[in-house]
What does this fold into?
Amino acid sequence: MAARKGRPPVGSSQHGVPAAPVRPAAGATSTRATPGFTRPALAPSLIAAIVLLACVAIIDSSGFVFARWGVTVLALIVLVFAVRGKTWWAALLMAAVAVCWNPLVTVPIPGQVWAALQILVAALFIVMGIAVKVPREADAPRAS
It folds into this structure.
C-alpha cells in the first residue's frame, strides 16, 4: 500500500488518535491534589512484614539471626519516620520491637511465643506503615 500524504497509513495504530493531548478548560479544578503528607514508613514496614512472615519457619535455626538483624534495622528505620511524623505511640512500639528482635542482646522467648510474635509484629508493621505520616514541609531542604 502506498502511504497517503500527511496522514498515517490505513490500518495503522495511529489512525483515529488525536494529534494533540486534550487539556482541561481554563478554570477547571484538578480532582487529584497532592496531599500534605507522605508515608515514608510504608515500604520498610511492608518489607519487615514479609521478612517476619517468611522467617516463621526458621525460628529455631541458625539463619534466624539474619532475620533478627533485618527486622531490627527496619524497626529502627520506621522508628525514625515515626519520630519525624510525631507519631509517638508508633515510635514507642517500634523501639520495643527493635529491642526484642535485637540479635546482639537476645531476649529469651520460647519458640512458640516467637512464632506468635512474628505474626503479631508483622501486622503491627503494616499498621505502622499506614499510620505514620510525615508532613511534606519536613521533606523540604533547609537553607544553611
